[in-house]
Specification:
Length: 358
């Protein structure tokens, strides 16, 4: 089986969720089966394993609908893409696409780093369900990252193709000394973007209710957004890292009281797994995907409720509660590994390639 993996969504300089999903799976897939990576920028190789690669056009190029003409030259049996938007016109190979979530149907502000014309198309794309159905039905099979999203795909009847859950996971950020004890310094950590649906305002308002806690915001932030958040709750103790290396992130996370997230919707939640793997409890909004990931280890609060979030964080101060949540978090995180996900994905790719060859 000649396998090609679309790695063009790997970010230059730093990973986002889809970028990390791609790199984590490629690394493990290559341990199990030879493959060739598709890239659109040589700098993407810095975040990828040393494997055969081919340079093709960018996924945001106007050439994307016909990218199959470039991919066909590699004579693949099956191509896996970590997104659902890979062009497929003219393909003569099996194709497996990935749909991570349906967030942008409810929260239609597109990612800010996309070109202007792509942002416009993004908004139009999410005004109706039929464009999604058209793309998904052009593939041979669909992958998604959680049972939560798989359920949404079924409920909206987005595809006639089989849907397989290949869970997200998290990279190793260090080896914690277990069992852990509650850190003496009250520190909360948020890792994620500042898109409106992420609920960062709720985190900041909750931090203002916890004057002895610092809220560390790890991701890159625009100056105007930083000023807005600082003015939103001046009494909150906010620490802006404006981007952090994995080592810096791991250091802050390993010494944190909790990872906090107030998202209104997610396809997965890699930061939860990263924190739980280190034995750091997670306090998160009560949405289905976080129930799926955090299980009994997590503490939950209603969406858009800073007071409830502050109360949940306070619950960790009960005798033995932090240590109990820490131990349960490590167990919960062990369910999500790139190795297990790669095994599941490779089984699917072999099945799809064999079906296509019949």
């Amino acid at each position: 089986m000649r396998l090609v993996v679309d790695c063009r969504y790997v970010r230059v300089g730093h990973h986002d969720g889809i970028s990390r999903f791609t790199a984590g799976l490629v690394r493990e897939l290559a341990e199990r089966h030879p493959l060739t990576m598709l890239i659109s920028d040589h700098r993407q190789l810095e975040k990828l394993p040393a494997l055969p690669w081919e340079l093709v056009s960018s996924p945001t190029s106007v050439r994307e609908p016909w990218v199959a003409r470039q991919v066909r030259k590699l004579r693949p049996d099956v191509v896996f893409s970590p997104m659902q938007t890979m062009g497929s016109w003219g393909r003569d190979y099996a194709l497996v696409l990935t749909l991570h979530d349906l967030i942008y149907y409810e929260n239609r502000t597109p990612p800010r780093d996309l070109p202007a014309f792509v942002r416009g198309l993004w908004r139009l794309y999410h005004l109706a369900w039929w464009p999604q159905r058209m793309l998904l039905n052009r593939a041979d099979a669909i992958v998604t990252v959680s049972d939560t999203t798989a359920g949404l795909i079924r409920s909206h009847r987005l595809t006639r193709r089989p849907v397989t859950v290949v869970p997200n996971a998290a990279d190793e950020l260090g080896t914690p000394h277990l069992p852990r004890t509650r850190p003496e310094r009250p520190r909360l950590v948020y890792m994620g973007s500042f898109m409106p649906y992420k609920g960062v305002d709720t985190l900041v308002r909750a931090a203002a209710l916890l004057p002895d806690h610092e809220l560390h915001l790890m991701s890159r932030v625009r100056p105007e957004e930083r000023r807005r958040l600082e003015q939103l709750a001046p009494q909150a103790r906010l620490v802006f890292h404006d981007g952090a290396t994995d080592a810096e992130y791991a250091d802050v996370l390993a010494g944190a009281t909790a990872l906090v997230t107030a998202s209104k919707a997610e396809g997965f939640g890699i930061p939860l797994v990263e924190a739980m793997r280190l034995g750091t409890p997670v306090v998160v909004s009560d949405i289905p995907i976080f129930r799926e990931i955090g299980g009994d280890a997590a503490l939950f609060f209603p969406v858009d409720d800073p007071a409830a979030l502050a109360q949940a964080i306070g619950a960790l101060e009960r005798p033995g509660e932090w240590e109990r949540r820490s131990a349960a978090s490590v167990d919960a995180a062990a369910r999500f590994t790139w190795a297990a996900s790669a095994d599941r994905l490779l089984d699917l790719l072999r099945e799809v390639a064999a079906r296509r060859a019949r």
